[in-house]
Amino acid sequence: MAILPIYTYDARVLREKTREVKKPDAAITSLALDMFETMKPASGIGLAANQVGNGSSLFIVDVSGVEGYEETGPFVFINPVITELWGEDVGYEEGCLSIPNVRDEIFRPEWLNIRYRDLNFEEQELQADGLLARVIQHEYDHLQGIFFTDYLKGLKKRLVLPSLKKIMRGEMEADYPLVPVHRMDAVER
Ligand code: ZN
Fold first, then answer.
1. Which residues of the chain have a pLDDT value below 70?
2. 123 catalytic, yes or no?
3. What fold does the segment set 6-87+110-146 form as a domain?
C-alpha cells in the first residue's frame, strides 16, 4: 500500500465528472487500499478517488476512530447514488484534505439513503444519519465536482477566498503530501 499525494483546490480532476466503475479489478482494489493508507496520517475520515487524481466514481469513509462510531465501517462506496435525503438541515464544521487549513460550518440534511457497490462489487444500500451521513454527502459531492466551500456565500465566501487562492498558488502546507494546482497544470498543458 502507498500513501498518495492529495490533489488540492481547484484541480481540474476535482471539477470534472467522475466515471462509472464498470467492473471490479485489482487496480480498483489497490486504489481503495492506498486511499485508506493515505487518509490515516492525514487524520481524514473520508476521501474521494479524484482527491488522489483518479476519476473513478469511488470514495471511502472511515469514522471508526470517532467516539460513538467505533463499530461503523470502514466503507468503500463504488458508483454511489444518494437516493434520498431527509430530515432537518444540520450545521457542522467541515474540513477537506484538498483544502488544508480551511474549515466552515455547512448545513446538510441529517438523513440519507445511498445505493452503491462494495469492493466485491456487490450491490449495497445504506441508511445513515449524523456524522456518517455528513461525510458521505461531503465525499459524494467530490464525485460531482463540488467542494464544501462552494456552499459558502457572501461574507463567509470572501473570508475563505484568500486561503483558497493561497492553496491554488501552492503556498499552503499540510503535514501530508499535496499536489499543488499550478504544478499539476504545468504537467497537463
Ligand atoms: Zn473533501
1. 182-189
2. no
3. Peptide Deformylase (3.90.45)
